[in-house]
Design brief:
Elements: H1 5-22, H2 26-40, H3 46-51, H4 64-76, H5 80-88, H6 93-96, H7 104-114, H8 119-127, H9 139-152, E1 160-161, H10 162-177, E2 182-187, H11 189-192, E3 197-198, E4 200-207, H12 210-218, E5 223-229, E6 233-238, E7 243-249, H13 254-262, H14 265-277, E8 280-283, E9 286-289, H15 301-307, H16 323-328, E10 343-344, H17 358-367, E11 372-378, H18 390-406, E12 411-419, H19 430-433, E13 438-442, H20 451-462, E14 469-470, H21 488-497, E15 501-505, H22 515-523, E16 528-531, H23 543-552, H24 566-573
Parallel strand pairs: 4-7, 10-11, 11-12, 12-13, 13-14, 14-15, 15-16
Antiparallel strand pairs: 1-3, 2-4, 5-6, 6-7, 8-9
This protein binds one DNA strand through helix 2, helix 4, helix 7, helix 9 and strand 5.
Amino acid sequence: MPVHNSDIADIFSEVADLLDIEGANEFRVRSYREAAQSIENLSSNIADLVDEDKDLTELHGIGESIADKIREIVETGKLEQLEEIKKRVPEDLIQLLNLSGLGPERVKDLYQKLSIKSLDDLKKAAKNEKIRELEGFGEKTENKIKKELERLGGEEEKRTKLIRAEEYAEPLVSYLDELEEIKKIIIAGSYRRRKETVGDIDILVTCSDSEPVMDRFVKYDDVEEVISKGDTKSSIRLKIGLQVDLRVVKEKSYGSALLYFTGSKSHNIKLRERAIDRDLKINEYGVFPEGKEKPVAGKTEEEVYDIVDLEWIPPEIRENRGEIEASENGKLPKLISLDDLKGDLHCHTTYTDGVDSIEEMARAAKDLGHKYLAITDHSKRVTVAEGLDAKELAKQIEEIDKINEKLNDFTILKGVEVDILEDGSLDLPDDILKELDIRVCSIHYKLDLSSEKQTRRILKAMENQYFNIWAHPTDREIHKRDPIDINMDKIMSEAAGRNICMEINSSPRRLDLNDIHSKMAKERGIKIAISTDSHTKDNLKNLKYGVNQARRGWLEADDVINTKSAGEIIKMMKK
DNA sequence: GCCGTTTTCGGCCCGACTGTTTTCAGTCG
């Protein structure tokens, strides 16, 4: 059973949480958290690095001790240290940390003084009004715990998909913006970094007077609960469960505040450390020389970066994944933008499970400013979509030729989304595949094969000369389906060697490849197709979500094939 | 536990809000 990066990261997070509750040195706890994050952010498979006997301490946040522990986990599947800690601290206490308002100190108190070991214990103690009797706790705290228990119902809180967050954040911003006191208003946080999911919404405001802004904020129609309200900071929870934080700062602090509230946290910490090296202090109000109260920068983000000798870094890559070093060395990527894309390379029509005809799809794409659209209906194995056999596909090819004659300055590419069967063969014979301009290959069945079998399946499929683009490579669906288990390192090496492209599927429920894998593909020289996998005309607009992901993966126009013309793409797909 | 163009020891990002306190610890982002 191969050990995944996320397994190792989870173990270290657990160690951190339990040590924290136990009252261990906070910096030691932080080390485990940072190691976990560092591993989570890693593009290559850490188990492979161990097999290759690489020096793990070269990774940021990983020293001798944690490197040993990683090796132990890879070799034995578990960490003895964690088993030991669990003997001292009940592991279910970690769930208590999910309740807003409960941190390690309070959880420790609850455990030591009331023998609370689980959410159930906590529920009972709250019901019997035992918690309010504890020193440092009170009636309000107890009530808050009760409320939180009810709200979460034992379920782990899920982050909200970006597209859904947009639906709620934008009207709220418009509502606030009606106030004449407001000068600037912007959504910061992971929303601005265009992360696929957001934990909450952070709104930053500059204004002439904060009082009416805060008042209006907490009176918003969709508010379920006011979590806090102050002069410069207020938090609410919307009825759908999404938390929104509002921060008000002065105009002269706008840049440093925006930087701070955009994050990521680890990016900011890196910047602050950099400032300390220069005898400066960065906070949300500006950049201050040691001991001075007058800021030397802060009005714009550029100013703040500049004063620590960095170029401005686009929000999407502020994840402490090497962007600060790149900025320092003038090596920041020139990130791709939606305007760079000339067309879309994956969609479906009424031939299979799409709802619009070939011509309707093509005209809609043209209206969006595209120069081409690849029609890639399913192959026969995908029976739920009534996938096409060779004969039906031949008929579609003929129809596309006819429609292409009618269209000016637009090309419909003849394609298919051919299924990769369990044995690694493609679902249609070569003699029909060769008639096409482009072939998108993907898996829809047997997603639960072992890593070894699944990897072999894809590697085998890639031997086919008509394997052009590997679509929605991991088959994950956000919050719904885990990625398939594969050795991505190995497959990407193969793809790179065979000039096979990989897809960033822009469907908001997929966004597959994700940001980390996109960056990994770029580093290996693999070209990417950003495609919508549209099943309706309207879906064609989703391309922007794929671009978000591509930007988060450091992709530049040159890394993405649909920045090229239709002619160039057809040429690239012929091998 | 990690890290190092002043360090192998002594630091480790920084501030707002809440509730329980009478000056602050805990939590959060």
